[in-house]
Specification:
- The protein has about 425 residues and is α+β, with helices and mostly antiparallel strands.
- Among the domains are: about 125-240, Rod shape-determining protein MreC, domain 1 (Thrombin, subunit H, Beta Barrel); about 265-350, Tyrosyl-Transfer RNA Synthetase, CATH 1.10.240; about 360-430, Structural Genomics Hypothetical 15.5 Kd Protein In mrcA-pckA Intergenic Region, Chain A, CATH 3.10.290.
- Helices cover about 45% and strands about 15% of the residues.
- The chain is built from 9 helices and 17 strands.
- The chain has helices at about 1-35, 35-115, 280-290, 295-305, 310-320, 320-335, 340-350, 370-375, 385-390; strands at about 125-130, 135-140, 155, 160-165, 170-175, 185-190, 195-200, 205-210, 220-225, 235-240, 360-365, 370, 395-400, 400, 410, 420, 425-430.
- The strands form 4 sheets. It has a 5-stranded antiparallel sheet, with no helix packed on it. It has a 5-stranded antiparallel sheet with strand order 8-7-6-9-10, with no helix packed on it. A 5-stranded mixed sheet has the order 11-17-16-13-14.
- Helix 3 packs antiparallel against helix 6 and helix 3 (about 280-290) crosses helix 7.
- The termini are far apart.
Amino acid sequence: MKNNLHFRQSHIVSIKLILFLVISIFFLLIDKNLELSNKIRNNTSYLIKPIYSTAEAPLKIFNKLSIYIDSMQDLIKKNKILEKKVFIQSGIIQKIPLLKEENKRLKKLLNSSESMEDSKIIVAELIKVNLNPFSNKIVIDKGEKNNLSLGQTVIDSLGLIGQVSEVNKDFSIVTLITDPGHALLAVNTRTEKRVMVSGTGDNRYLKAEYMSLNEDVIEGDILITSGLDNIFPEGYLIGVISKINKKDAFGLTTPLLTTSTGKKMGKTEQGAVWIDQNKYSSYDFYQYWRNVDDNDVEKLLLIFSDLNIEEIKMLIKQDINNAKKKLAYLVTTDCHSENSANQAEEKAKSIFENNSFDRIDEISFKVDLKLIDTLTSNNIIESKSEAKRLIEGGGIKIEDNPIKDTNLIIDKSYDKKILRIGKKKYFKIIIS
């Protein structure tokens, strides 16, 4: 019974399906010829259009909103890119002054480098640095096998670093310019004035001292090597003035020594007095002070002696020559020794008071040499021009006879004769 029911139900479904297909085919054939579906759609479209519009409105709004959001996101992205570009450009603009200074420095560095021979330039790498700011040494990877030597200048792209202070086979130690033992002559690139720069012991700083309070220096001034110290080449960056400390400084000064005529007692005025015995013997030193002008004795005693004013005035009043002897003795004692002063005094007495030439210095002459050549080679007279000037002025005598020939050649006939130069210098000629 159940099987029969199932058959009948399946049969009915099949009949319905066949009937639906027949009707569909019928309507398709009619529509093809009569275009009924188009007419129906045309006649009913105005009725369903509002429904379609209403249904599509949210979708259109969503699409427009989506486009707007995409557009905004794109604008935000582009704005961020522009902001970044503006930031970068602003940074570049701010760096322009620094870049200009860097350009100037690099030009100076290039010019300086051009003056150096390529064969003398050694490129090295830093292999060790102490992070302690108070350490003033670094290690580089070049040494004896690379022909590195003591005292060589070390620079990098930023300027001067220091000097090679120790050389080993494969490496070298460099002492930085910040080391307290370093001092160098620098030039201010803005004012072109020279300034002495020295290390502080702190590798972050250098110091420029001994400048006047009104010195033209400002923060940001660039200091470069002058090349005048014969240690570091010219034109390398040393540093930038970062801080200025102006403090009152006090110093002890002494008056410039001048004669009563106003003439300076210095080398440029042919008035130099040498303490070095290789340039000026103790006797010559004594004689200089012994023969100063009478009008200068009081001033020189006030400066170079511990005598009080009353003692000095009394000494000069009693005997000006004794005052000169006192001055010569005291100054020679202070600058050489008491023994040297005593010997010089005895020698002067022997020559000028006793007319004895036993204590005068001897000067050795070789036969057939010019007089002025021997005098200058023994530093008795500083130069040939001075010797010629003395001869022409009658200031050089043998015995009491003035020398007139500037080309005089000494022979054996002059042996043991007395040579007189000026008023107070006497020598015994020894022919060797």
